[in-house]
Amino acid sequence: MERGIFITFEGPDGAGKTTVLQMVGEKLAQSGLKVLLTREPGGISISEQIRQVILNKDNTSMDGRTEALLYAAARRQHLVEKVKPALEKGYIVLCDRFIDSSLAYQGYARGLGIKEVLTINEFAIEETMPELTLYFDIEPEEGLKRISTNNSREVNRLDMETLSFHKKVREGYQIVIEQFKDRFFIIDASLPIERVVRIAEEKIIEKVKK
Ligand code: TMP
Questions:
Q1: pLDDT computed for residue 153 by the predictor
Q2: Which of 112, 158, 162 to mutate to test the pocket of ligand 1 (most atoms within 8 A of CB)?
Q3: Which of 38, 47, 97, 108 most suits a substitution to test ligand 1, by most atoms within 8 Å of the C-beta?
Q4: Is the peptide bond before 192 cis (omega within 30 degrees of 0)?
């Protein structure tokens, strides 16, 4: 059986990647492709439970390293229980966030060190890296504005961070992109949603056909 393709969606909060992932996923499924849509932290019961702990607004005392380890633990379980089996069955797996979120948020924005956070994540994921990462770029001010006007979205512990934290997240992503250039494809998320969806879909199809 043909092996699947692992594709991740990344970007600062409010970039709209979750909506784009759903829309692109539907289009790919309609065209007859086997697609699995999932997210981090979460995607399966154990990892969704870890998500509750990480994002709980009451857990204000959570230490940065604890946070990084919990994300890595949720990632590990999701990978072995859901992502890898789907890849083995030939699915195109579209995952909302993966290791790059930890590198940008915990490694850079929280100041734990990109290299250090990469090390704990290498333990968690072993060799499984995405073949393509779509990065949805948005100015932090615009991203936060979108979050505050989107009533259907849960407001979590990380949304409560300051604008300067979200600016650091974007800077962190820029460093990570530089480090893993070959895997990243940058999309301007300030464009109208239909355009963003079309660009993402085209890039994924190009990858599938390769
Ligand atoms: P979401 O809003 O995209 O579902 O993600 C939840 C929050 O978790 C978001 O603010 C980004 C953050 N996050 C990290 O800080 N590190 C990670 O490794 C992941 C996967 C998410």
A1: 75
A2: 158
A3: 97
A4: no
Summarised one tens digit per residue, pLDDT across range 54-68 is 999 999 999 999 999
**pLDDT above 90 (res 137):** yes
- H-assigned helices in the chain: 17-30, 45-55, 64-78, 84-88, 99-101, 114-125, 140-149, 163-179, 193-209
CA of residue 208 to ligand 1 center, whole Å: 27
pLDDT bin (cut points 50, 70, 90) of residue 1 is low
Contact 132, 207 (CB under 8 A): yes
The SS3 of residue 36 is: strand
Q: Which of 98, 125, 95 is nearest to 204 (CA)?
A: 95
Q: What is the pTM of this model?
A: 0.96
Alpha carbons within 13 A on the beta-carbon side of 64: 15
| Position 170, amino acid | R
**CB-based contact 54:102 (threshold 8 Å):** no
134: helix, coil or strand? Answer: strand
- 94 pairs with which residues across the strands? 7, 37
